[in-house]
Amino acid sequence: MKQKSPLKQDIKMLGALLGDTIKTQVGQEFFDKLENIRLLSKRARKNDDEAADKELKDLIRGLSNEELKNLVRAFGQFLNLANLAEAHHFMSDMKDFEEGALTKHLTKLTQIIPELLANGRSKEEIINTIAGMNIELVMTAHPTEVKRRTWLHKHAQINTLLDQKENYRMTPSEQKDNINRIAVLITSLWESDEIRRVRPTPFEEAKWGLAIIEDTVWDAVPRFMLELDAIVESFTGEKLPTWAAPIKFASWMGGDRDGNPNVTHETTEQVCLRNRWTASDLYHKEVNKAIQRISETDCSAELRAIVGDVHEPYRVFLRPFRARFLETKKWTQAQLEGKSYEPQLPLMEDINEFLDALHICHRSLVECSGKDLADASVLKIIRRASCFGLNILKLDVRQESTRHSDVINAITEHLELGSYDEWDEAKKQEFLVRELKSKRPLLPRDIQFDADCQEVVDTVKTIAKQPEEALGAYVISMSRAASDVLAVHLLQKECGVKKPLRVAPLFETLEDLENSGEIMDTLFGIDWYKGASHGEQEVMIGYSDSGKDAGKLAASWAQYTAQEALHQVSEKHGIKLTLFHGRGGSVGRGGGPVEHALMSQPPGTVDGRMRVTEQGEVLQAKYSTIDVACHNLLLYVTAVLQATLAKPPVPKPEWRELMDKMSVISCDAYRDIVRGRENFVKYFRQVTPEQELGRLHIGSRPAKRKKSGGIESLRAIPWIFAWTQIRLMLPSWLGVGEALKVALEDGKHDQLQEMIQDWPFFYFLMDMIDMVMVKTDHRVAKYYDEILADDDVKELGLELRTKLKQTLETSQKVVAGLSTQEERVALRASIKVRNPYADTLNYLQGECMRRLYKENQDGDPVLEDAVMATIAGIAAAMKNTG
């Protein structure tokens, strides 16, 4: 008999422990029903057995509400445990590949560096590129993580026990204890509420972001740099300079107020203080450890000149920094509590002061005691300080463009200058630039703003009060004109911001992406603006809203051409451009493997610099453990190195021509359905759990920008989340089939194959669409139509499922050219195993929704909890949400 793989053994073990818990907590009779349903679902899926499928649905129809809820919880918890085991063995396999290293990705890096050297890149270029990288990962509170924090914490504990289980030195008694401890955690999970009962505040979201840093990333950064150093040295003979910090972190949690009335200027101030408190606490502990560790009495002349003739120079040198971090922590704590506190020592306010001191220590230890001791004692702190600064996470501020123009309009009307909103773009620019150059204030002292305008002004005044290191960029969502950027600069001037935040326009819709190059060209052509930019510009590319606006294919091409245009305009004006990618976890929002995503960008647009959002469930997936965090940080460095020094090819004119044509066809087909069908919104709301998503309490931000309105007012995350739940995945493929069909009918099959083989952009696009198509299921989508849709919208459901089948068939003809990859095979195998569990959860969700809305059981707490739990379960089955 063939031995099961370690992964399958662990999944079986976790499943058995969950089964034991269910028998104990709910009873044998229920467990027998559960097993019957599981086996029916497997039979229905394995043999496409319609009789078994019907029996399964009928059985579910006959369950009580309480049984529905327990079934949902059982299947959802099993899938979460299976995900946990898969993630654990993914990292375990990498460690086993080459003992002591995260080698699966290190192997990629160790392949890329010799390739670069063979292609003429020098060792110095490689070292300088890695050392000079500016990669900023921006943590956001976008609500796509459906698991409660307490669940995530228990999952982390189980992961640790799975790690320990692999220790072959454990005695039988210790092994038994290990399994028992896992069993206790699984029982605790079953007895815990998986549903958030209270929506988190923005401040709580920000604390969660800091917790990720404290729990894993704080320790992962120096280890990641150690491993990166080892690789660079093995190929170049040199280590990275101690000042190198290729990756830094920022956050939107507590700064992103676009459509979130819960984020106020008070929130932003509190989060900045909390960030600073956390940094002071962590650095105080690290400096204290260094003081305890470094007892050497000999030091360099440089250090001796500072401390004088003392017995333990390093301890004397570092103690004032320890004291000042403690004092900064006390002062910040008082500020958070609204109390007054007079510092007895200078607060820590300049990271360079701290870094200079650490480098003095490091140089002295290298000179007197050797590099190994110097690195072990001080280098880890240098790496952390270079990465995190004095605030751990620099906070971005984001606001929608019209909120700023509303303030300017209120000012011009108060001063009887006319209505700013009614001026044309040229007049707006002329006014804004004149006022930016003016030395007199514009903001009247006696002006009375409405509440919304006052909040914008108070936010900018709050920015003015923060230390320079506390804040990052000011991002303007829905940027549509040069005046949108100038308006924010003017508000910063008028509110007393001494060193203005860099202003990053966010181009989101198809039209805005297409106009982005022209807008930035206009800005760079303004002498005042070009001088104020100091030769650098950040521009954010919106993946979510562009996809919602135009569909996956058209949006992807618009994002690509926008980046090309922005790169060309920046080079024309001698501006160093940093592109900020607003990518989500799902394909419809720009998700996918980072190495593929970066190599699919236009050549020259990465150039060692990038910002990217890390959102929702992506944060948990990438930074749940130190091993996983190291792996993902190395992955970013590798991808940026490759995209910078092994630039992707420039697309051929005939490729562009075909993409232009397919983009128009795809966009028209997408909008014909989403905008052109009168009953589309009704269909969407009836067959998807869109209404329930707003009650999940998975984030502080409302699901809609406005309380009224249809699809246009719905945020991109719940838009994609809802379609993912019913396995239709509509935003990620709608319109693609029509575009590919026309291309094939025009005899472009060979050209499409060439584009897949030779153009990373098109490869990545089709690879992601292929992944989505594997996760879709027209049978499941049909089930939702049958039991939830009114007769007048069922025809639309049939049309969408027909389009899905046609897209699947057409795309298969094109993706036949995709190379067979280990990941592709693994994905299909994983989905095949999950389908019976996912199918059952979908049937359970549909039945819950039917009872709520067709049998008027809305308000039944058991049923409402059940449908909420199905959302989390299906998200676990799909391995992503929005």
Structure description:
It is a single chain. The chain is of the alpha/beta class and 882 residues long. The chain folds into four domains: 6-201, no CATH class; 265-388, Up-down Bundle (de novo design (two linked rop proteins)), CATH 1.20.1440; 400-582, TIM Barrel (Alpha-Beta Barrel), CATH 3.20.20; 653-878, no CATH class. The protein is 66% helix and 6% strand. It has 36 helices and eight strands. An eight-stranded parallel β-barrel has the order 1-2-3-4-5-6-7-8, surrounded by nine helices. The longest helix is centred in the first third of the chain and has 35 residues, at 202-236. The chain is globular. The model is unreliable at 96-106 (pLDDT under 50). Homotetramer.
